[in-house]
């Protein structure tokens, strides 16, 4: 059961470095569920197809994902020397961020809570 000391396990886990190009958008003002609708549509596609999908998607999250996808492509081309034609969306996911709590006044002195959710969106590319 014991695989070594906790610090050694952490050291081993952090030693494995993922060299795939990626881009991350933190604290995006869109809920995880709404962002995942767009991310599910582009997962596994090549970047030209993915850009076409998000450019003509009417959802608000698609504008955020488009900008993030263009950033990931630029990272791949400039930092890793990859060719844009060979890039594929390997991973894309949205993690839960902090939630802003607001109050909405209602009838007879009541107050309803409004939760404005945020998410952290990540896109990882890979070569075909």
TrEMBL record:
Keywords: Ribonucleoprotein, Ribosomal protein, RNA-binding, rRNA-binding. PROSITE patterns: RIBOSOMAL_L22. The keyword Cell cycle does not apply. Pfam families: Ribosomal_L22. GO terms for biological process: translation. SUPFAM superfamilies: Ribosomal protein L22. It comes from the Bacteria. Residues 1-20 are annotated as: Disordered. One of its GO terms (cellular component) is cytosolic large ribosomal subunit. Residues 9-20 have a biased composition (Basic and acidic residues). The keyword rRNA processing does not apply. InterPro entries: Ribosomal_uL22, Ribosomal_uL22_bac/chlpt-type, Ribosomal_uL22_bac/org-type, Ribosomal_uL22_CS, Ribosomal_uL22_sf. One of its GO terms (molecular function) is rRNA binding. Part of the 50S ribosomal subunit. PANTHER family: CHLOROPLAST 50S RIBOSOMAL PROTEIN L22-RELATED (PTHR13501), LARGE RIBOSOMAL SUBUNIT PROTEIN UL22M (PTHR13501:SF8). Belongs to the universal ribosomal protein uL22 family. The globular domain of the protein is located near the polypeptide exit tunnel on the outside of the subunit, while an extended beta-hairpin is found that lines the wall of the exit tunnel in the center of the 70S ribosome. This is Large ribosomal subunit protein uL22. It comes from Lachnobacterium bovis DSM 14045.
């Amino acid at each position: 059961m014991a695989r070594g000391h906790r610090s050694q396990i952490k050291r081993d886990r952090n030693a494995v470095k993922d060299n795939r190009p990626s881009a991350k958008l933190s604290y995006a003002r869109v809920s995880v569920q709404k962002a995942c609708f767009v991310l599910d549509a582009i997962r596994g596609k090549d970047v030209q197809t993915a850009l076409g999908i998000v450019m003509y998607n009417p959802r608000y999250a698609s504008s955020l994902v488009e900008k993030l996808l263009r950033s990931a492509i630029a990272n791949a081309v400039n930092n890793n020397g990859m060719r844009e034609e060979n890039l594929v969306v390997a991973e894309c996911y949205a993690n839960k961020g902090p939630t802003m709590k607001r109050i909405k006044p209602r009838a007879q002195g009541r107050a309803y809570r409004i939760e404005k959710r945020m998410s952290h969106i990540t896109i990882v590319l890979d070569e075909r």
